[in-house]
Specification:
The complex is a heterodimer. Helices cover 59% and strands 3% of the residues of chain A. Chain A starts with a helix and ends in a 39-residue tail after the last helix. By secondary structure, chain B is of the alpha+beta class. In chain B, strand 3 and strand 4 form a beta hairpin. In chain B, helix 5 packs across helix 6 and helix 6 crosses helix 7. In chain B, 29% of the residues are buried. Classes of the chains: A mainly alpha, B alpha+beta. Chains A and B meet through helix 3, helix 9 and helix 10 of A and helix 6, strand 5 and helix 7 of B.
Amino acid sequence: MTLPRALCLPLRMLLLLLALAGGCATTEDRDPRDPLEPLNRAVFRFNEVVDDAVAKPVAGAYRDLLHEQIRGRIRNFFANLGDLWIGVNDVLQGKFFDGFEDGMRFVFNSTFGIFGLHDVASDMGIEKRDEDFGQTLGRWGVGDGPYIILPILSSSTLRDTVGWGVDIFVGDPVGEFRPIALRNSAYALRLVNRRADLLDASRILEQAALDKYVFQRDAYLQRRRSQIYDGNAPREPRQRDEEEAPAKEPAKEPARAPAEEAPAKPR
Amino acid sequence: MKTIISVILGGLLASCVACAGAQELAPDVLVKNVTTEVVELITKDKEIRSGNRGKLIQVVEAKVLPHFNFSSMTALAMGQNWNKATPEQKKRLVDEFKTLLVRTYASALAAYSEQRFDFRPLRARPTDTDVIVNVRVIQPGAQPVPIDYSMEKTAAGWKVYDVMVGGVSLVANYRTEFNATVREVGIEGLIRNLQVKNRSFEPAPPAEKK
């Protein structure tokens, strides 16, 4: 593991905490990726209550009050600020050209796009990417670690929680906004905007899942795996009659596996 | 250079003739046609746009459903439990899972608002019987969302047996869920859970109408 030094202590403390929490729980046939399930489910229920009582109504009102045009500008503004850190992460993952493109996006959108309100770079054919430090760690070979439901923020893993901390405290330009009141308003606006964008997705989840907790967990883990491989995750063999593949995926060595070379799928 | 182009063109022509001869659409063409048709239908229909779910489900059943292989999907989602089910249980599982997926699909379609689709060219050999068709949903200010259809060639044409949205495979997602449920309450229990789930979303059960 090639973790920066500064991360080691908080990481170790988190690990210890998780070990303690894990020790309290019994371990009958539970998903090996989710050793903290009872604790997670409790936090999940708490989040649902908060979401139903506060986040959903606020996001719904936000969506009804503001025209999509305006919401789109707000989305673009924050997306543009995010492109810088996305670029840094692309470079950290050795994707220098991608990082260069992210930088160009920021330059074009901040100038021609008027502080990022307009996503002119996408119109020019420079597509937005999605990177964060959790993905960078994954690319460096750090495994998921146990699945964690964070209060309010919901699905994460140990690795992604560490990554998120770095994203927020190191890579987030909004954190530099001053005065503090402005910064906090920007945080709130971004959060509400994001929740509003997810209203449809959460409705679909509601419809699709037998057990929302399990469905969301698996979707999150699959999604992160795909993101770490930039959408080219090795295709898992099609299984019907055989035993289940071990749940622990060898998510290490993210060598880019071109889709053409997908292994023959046994029927 | 010229020869290369003519060879490519010739190859394209030949493959077109081949698919026309077999009376069967190539999988990527099929996906494109169906997507375009359905999106046009739902954006033009006033009732659907104002939230008529029943009608939207009808559209999905008429236009999308015939291109899915639900028994394949159910078998894959059941994993090793599929063989433990009786033929009668299998039939009910397929039926309930089909209903659930159709409704989920309808929910996803209801969220559609003027996103653009980018249909990627198919990377497959003509002899392949199992391919992935890539479509990307383009939306301003965000990374495009890939939708990958896993399709298999059957006697009745190409059929979808899994859909991956943003790298999340529907079948793989349900596999964990089904596995956990079967372990807890058995196959009968899973069928019952699916039934309860499906009924809870019925717009207005006809039996209760006065």
